[in-house]
UniProtKB/TrEMBL annotation:
The lineage of its organism: Bacteria, Bacillati, Actinomycetota, Actinomycetes, Bifidobacteriales. It comes from the Bacteria. This is Superfamily II RNA helicase. SUPFAM superfamilies: P-loop containing nucleoside triphosphate hydrolases (SSF52540). One of its GO terms (cellular component) is Ski complex. It comes from Bifidobacterium bifidum LMG 13195.
Amino acid sequence: MVKHQRNHSAADRPGPSPSQRYAAFQKRQAHNASVAARFAATLPFDLDDFQQDAIDALERGENVLVAAPTGAGKTVVADFAMYLARERNVKAFYTTPIKALSNQKYHDLTAVYGANRVGLLTGDISINSEADIVVMTTEVLRNMLYEHSTTLNALRFVILDEVHYLADRFRGPVWEEVIIHLPRQVSVIGLSATVSNVEDFSSWISSVRGDTKLVVSERRPVPLEQHVLVQADDHTEPELLDLYRRDAQGEQTTKLNARLIDRLDQLDRQAARRRGAENSRSRGRGHSRGHVPAQRHTPKRWAVVDELNYLDMLPGIYFIFSRNGCDQAVEQCINAGLELTTEDEMRRIRAIVDEMVAGQLSQEDLKALQFSRFRFALEEGFASHHAGMVALFRQIVERLFEEGLVKMVFATETLALGINMPARCVIVEKLEKFNGSGHVPLTPGEFTQLTGRAGRRGIDTIGHAIVVDHRDFVPATAAALSSKRVYPLHSSFHATFNMAVNLLNTSDYETTRATLDHSFAQWEANESAWQLESQLTTLKQALNGYEQAFHCEYGDFASLMRIRMELSDLEKNGRRKLKQTAFPTDEQRKNTFRELDQSIETLKKRDREHPCRQCPDMQQHMKWGHRWIREMREYERVQHRYESRTGSVARQFDRICSILEQLGYVKRDGTDMRLSEQGQLLRHIYSEQDIVLAEALERGMFDHLTARQLAAVLSALVFEARGGTGGEPCSSI
């Protein structure tokens, strides 16, 4: 008999049981009574799922790592941490990588909580340092931890904004020091860009700080489109072309725009013809510069701004990797006669500028800073923004841009580091920058950080990222940078002399070594070491197999192979290495070469007299022996890599301590080390050149210098990187 199946409607299906309804009711009641619910009620918008997950974890007492694109709303999680600190009557610190971001965050928070409840600590500013909420640069917090500052009392929450900054080769180690050394009762809130190995980073934080909730959101609140701006010559209008082809719905795909490629080819041919004509004229006049490759015309900065204004794509941020270049761009726009503001906007700009400057600087200072020119440019809608400006001028630019009055800001990459200045479009002048030692290509992470400013949430439906055509530009490069939304985060942590003495001041030698073993650098090294360990196991199995194959009753055949390996190395590389070695005297060089020859002869003798030479199966064993040697060389190579990774940070610390002991900064006390008076001095020198400064002070090299001479000498020892890494001087004496 066939049983008829009945299709139940939603109304027919049984609802939740009374116990299930009661459990759901209790859950709703608990949430409504939570601090998270009260915080959410203060917001003018509903929380996204990732924001809700993060703040729930914070209320449970967990550490939180939030990875999301620029503008996605990571700051809401930080806002809740500070709200929670206020509710529990404890302290919260908000750390940033640069002073400009610290200043902006301080002003934002004073508007919410009042000036009496918020403090600011940077390298040169101290305001209300004992407040419930203190904004500071990350270096300041690191220094406080080493000094055991009383300001740390009642601290329970630390927000590390732009925590992915720990990959920075100059200042990144500071973030790891803070994460490692913060007291365990402090909850860490890390706000990061989207990185491909965020799970690894989260696992490391969990290993050093306990339960850590990882929250990831890859959704941009405002979609981003990629463009390239080209120009045939100064007599034609610039052209804005899509980097990617569009589909039937008009959305950009991941395939390069054929029209862009064709147009660039056309401009290349025009440039070649133009160069050919110039070369002909030069030869006609009897001059020749040799072969000069043709280059497409690079659009003028003012022409780029004028075109984007015509296309209604402002306000915009124009990234130029030079402070001087930013200032020049403003002058170029003014000299070209561009105006981006209305009469009403000009009046509002003038009023805000006068209000912010009043009582802050003397007339002499304003004149020296060319204030009248600065204000005139603002009234026309232009400004530069970089670390070389006085802080007040940067704050004026930030406020006017946020209020939509300044329409174009020419900035170094400092502006991309978390400062709340979203724009409709972002222009990148070149896909390379000077990093302090040479010109290097932008990384996908840097490009994402820059272009992430494009698209204002709640205002723009689309953000625009624009690369200006420039020397050696090819669309594939821009595509590679823009398509790779995430990038790996790698530690730049390394032990320093200052770090060593500060750690030894608070812990014994072995505890300090164990602490360094907890760094993200060592964690990454250990991860790769596990893979090497697996390779070693495989290689060892192969070696064992070969040793069984050439087992010899006359003796240890493996020992014969080791003799032949060593002999081969000395004969092939021994003399070459010695020739590359500098010897104090000619006699010592001759003696060393003589010892090498003796070692070679000794090995040859051992080879000839080895008992396995008598074995009738010698030739067959030797075939397996050659394979054994090949595998043994690979085994030793992998073994060396494995040993260099395991405990590598602690070994670096050992070497530093050895130097400190030789120079008298530490004294050995059994198995421990104690700081000398010199070591106590070194503790307070935070600099790339810490040991150089300490030695100079110890030897009295600065004692007879005038104030000006001292400033000149120290300027050579105080590193300030360009652009994004330049927010905080690395020296503090």
